[in-house]
């Protein structure tokens, strides 16, 4: 990021070299020193603790279903709680609801904008939310009547000042959490469209978010182009924790099943695990031969495996505890843009710029 | 907002990261000591110097990065697709053939990273003009279209374009055949990638622009060991790791597993009932678990706790418009002294909650809800797990037979 030219302050007291650049260098030096000191205290890494754990054998996962029907890049997908239906959205504005098990399309909506980057299934299974370049998040109730025009029942819920990058229902159909290119996240009341809480703190576009599965269910994590992953209190709107170790945009964040940690995927071609109680990064998942950015990550049900969808069309499967790569999966013919494990952990689904979705098991 | 990468100038952060990494690989490949062995490759009757075969590249990648052949093929395929390496045989087909097909490294000034520093149209126009002259008008359809579009756009400098094209062609005629072939292949590969045929795979499509730049306690083993413990506990429940009974529906095409695990079933599966003992949250998150727990609490005469907790959840996640009405209901049923289902909250929390109720909002019940939640978690929940009710359910629970995979 290019910093603007700062004029020298014209006071007598100020030394010529007390410019913004100098102060920034100083703060960077202090940061490095601090990290060196912390390292001396022997912070433990996850793979060290997991040395005695049994390694994983060969994993054979294949494409079990291919969903064809989008006419352009698939950008996002989400599972229904019934473990077999999914909703997907694409660059040409189409949002499709599928029964992934039979590969039948059940509903289709054409949004009035292109690049529908976010879509989500409501917990009840009766509605879907989506948005993108229209800067909004809209909710469509799913009708049982195939002839009914879904677009007519559309409800506009969220309004941002830039593109919508991600959306998620909270524990019910009544609230939606959104993230946007305008650098903020927001919580909305679906019925009234009212803004319940907004979250400020990212210095650039926010690209992803995930809700915590914790007992108190009050926090969520977001990742952005400022390379930061922020944890927020949904009640107060405060950023309660922040992690900045990635070297490039964070495209995806996902909580570990227990809620004690979360994983992130970035354009710097690495995935990382952050422990919330230790308040630091505890694992990096990377390999010299992996060159392209990660677009999306998700855990298997036990949290032992981390699946990453990459911009070089592959899926890498990681042993979360040992930090090693267990498997690499080929199949898509263009970038993998979205990846989610099914609610009961029996499979995971990927969406790609090759216009298709695949279910793997 | 522009979406087309080729139309905008300036660096894209995303491109930088992976291009830098690919360049690292290319540099390593050309290292005089540890890099690839280059030799003369034969192309029909011409000998091309400083070339390598597809097979060489794959072998080198396998050795350097300790990967399998499939992955090496994939990575080297990317290097060709992005133009860092170009084919000498069949130059229009940018694929890596794992055989004796010859390839060369692209010259520095034609690396993808340099596209954005060119004034957009000039190099493309000169290339097409050259091709037009050489092939005497026999360009491909999409090239013809581009040619006429460019002609219209930079009409004022068209003479310059044609002059440059003629000059370059004349210079190339004076080169040795080997150099000429190499240069033609270089150029061909470069333009195939940077001005792809409509409908062809465009590797430089980077998606939407992201223009908005607006700016210690030591970790102990005991902190991190929870991940090891959690994964071990849930391993048998992870279908991708251990499979699931009777079979994984996606693999066997049999939905029995889902039928047996519907939200409400007459007899739950053993794994499911076991999971309720992992944490209080697991019990509450499962509708059947919650129901069973309620039955137990009713026997203990403390069911009002769970009812209260559920009512509070309903406020937290429900419609904004019904908050006031729901808070009143809760007050009437659970908090008023002498209420039928009065909950036992400590006096400090009760005072705070009653004060808050005067101005009801979504989180007004949070403190009281948490107090009751932890009460159930520490007291009723452990006793439920030891109860006959739970033990009998576990004993009766189904363990499905495994059916053969397809």
TrEMBL record, chain A:
CDD domains: WD40. SUPFAM superfamilies: WD40 repeat-like. Pfam families: WD40_Gbeta (PF25391). WD repeats lie at residues 67-108, 157-198, 199-242, 243-284, 294-328, 329-361. Keywords: Repeat, Transducer, WD repeat. One of its GO terms (biological process) is signal transduction. PANTHER family: GUANINE NUCLEOTIDE-BINDING PROTEIN BETA G PROTEIN BETA. Belongs to the WD repeat G protein beta family. May interact with RGS9; this interaction stabilizes both proteins and increases RGS9 GTPase-activating protein (GAP) activity, hence accelerating the deactivation of D(2) dopamine receptor-mediated signaling. This is G protein subunit beta 5. It comes from Gasterosteus aculeatus aculeatus. The lineage of its organism: Eukaryota, Metazoa, Chordata, Craniata, Vertebrata.
TrEMBL record, chain B:
One of its GO terms (cellular component) is plasma membrane. GO terms for biological process: G protein-coupled receptor signaling pathway; intracellular signal transduction; negative regulation of signal transduction; regulation of G protein-coupled receptor signaling pathway. Transmembrane segments: none annotated. Keywords: Signal transduction inhibitor. Pfam families: DEP, RGS, RGS_DHEX. The keyword Zinc does not apply. The keyword Flavoprotein does not apply. PROSITE patterns: DEP, RGS. GO terms for molecular function: GTPase activator activity. PANTHER family: LP21163P, REGULATOR OF G-PROTEIN SIGNALING 11. Residues 279-394 form the RGS domain. It comes from the Eukaryota. This is Regulator of G protein signaling 11. Residues 32-107 form the DEP domain.
